[in-house]
């Protein structure tokens, strides 16, 4: 079979060719032992082996002598870390279909846009990008073009109408079906976005997680829960990612062990709402129960399990929420030295009136109470947060409440946004929309306030010796590396040694608003 020549054949010929292709591969499949490509270390020499169940063959594989079958996939990812982790999962799945990642869009056989829907601008970006890619597809008609992620989930019909040249549109719940969707899209355009009611699983024992050996990654994201039941009035996530669905802890631990066995030192657990992890698994038919009713916080228990994986030195997680937040989480910080002193806890506003209009389900006092639980056991904790300014109805007094909360919290850094109406969310229908100019002014004021605080905290680091986990080489400067302190502060480390993956004491000699600087002691 040549390099995909069959894609230019007529449909019946195409179907026939693909059937032959599939049959050829299944024949290949029967005499391939899959484990050789997945788990290298044997059970007894690898302390992590007990965490990783033996993988079964799931997708066909092709020996290199058939390298002509190797295809190229180009993925463009927008949005949050969960989208980044989803992209890696898709690369793993496509890897089993002999797609290899490329960063050159022109040479791709499959172009995939993994999209974000968090801001109005995001959707426009996708549509204009598709416009650019249309020309490329006209030049190379056999190139597959796909859209995934939250814009695909929320706007599939509009996209399919606006961009009929797109071959496959699928939502975050269809990721594990990607190989099948790609095979179908070779025959006809495919749109698949229904929410999957069977829970959330990324079977890493079948298809191992994506790990780029060339990059020698030191820190890896692991998705643990997706979706959200909170319905904040400004947010699209409950509509684009569905209800909260958690992965079983054994799967998460197996993935952490897989990464640790490849030298990864830091695990970052991801979810739109990590505190609610496992509460859907505890209820009947994935019906969520409260930590109070359960008498425990499954998220805290998961932290203990991941911390017990040999080789895992540091654990961070995002995004947390004052909701489903119990003292057990503080106890985990008291007992688990692997948990970093970096805690991202979005507050969104400092005004109870606005928190209520946002349906955030906590008050300013309750937010500060949870912060107090953590600071009681970890006084060094570096908190960060998300804040929206200009939410409909926000008065100068409400905004002043936000500023006073920021002063009181002394955040290490904040992500601040102007309220952006999101189609289909309740807040778009609220009266008292705040003028753009007022939003701009408030955002400026807030960012200036926080900039001073971040500069103050970073300046205080000068002269200190901090344990830094070195994450990657500085591409622009020789003998310079980047890593993070235990508080999550970025540090440029000067050294002629190869420091990748090491945790070492660094004397901080310089600081600015974005990073610290120093040399090993
Ligand atoms: S908790 Fe977060 S993800 Fe959930 S609806 Fe609110 S803002 Fe969106």
Overview of the structural elements:
The chain is of the alpha/beta class and 521 residues long. The protein has four domains: 1-69, no CATH class; 71-194, Methylthiotransferase, N-terminal domain (Rossmann fold, 3-Layer(aba) Sandwich); 198-340, Transcription Regulator spoIIAA; 465-520, Nucleic acid-binding proteins (OB fold (Dihydrolipoamide Acetyltransferase, E2P), Beta Barrel). The chain has helices at 11-30, 35-38, 81-95, 120-139, 150-162, 178-185, 237-240, 249-260, 279-282, 291-294, 298-307, 327-335, 352-357, 364-377, 396-409, 436-460, and strands at 71-77, 99-101, 110-115, 144-149, 168-170, 190-192, 219-223, 225-226, 245-246, 266-270, 314-318, 342-344, 382-389, 413-418, 465-473, 480-484, 490-494, 503-511, 516-520. The protein has a six-stranded parallel beta sheet, with helices on both faces. The protein has a five-stranded mixed β-barrel with strand order 15-16-17-19-18. It has a three-stranded parallel beta sheet with strand order 7-10-11. The chain is globular. It binds iron/sulfur cluster.
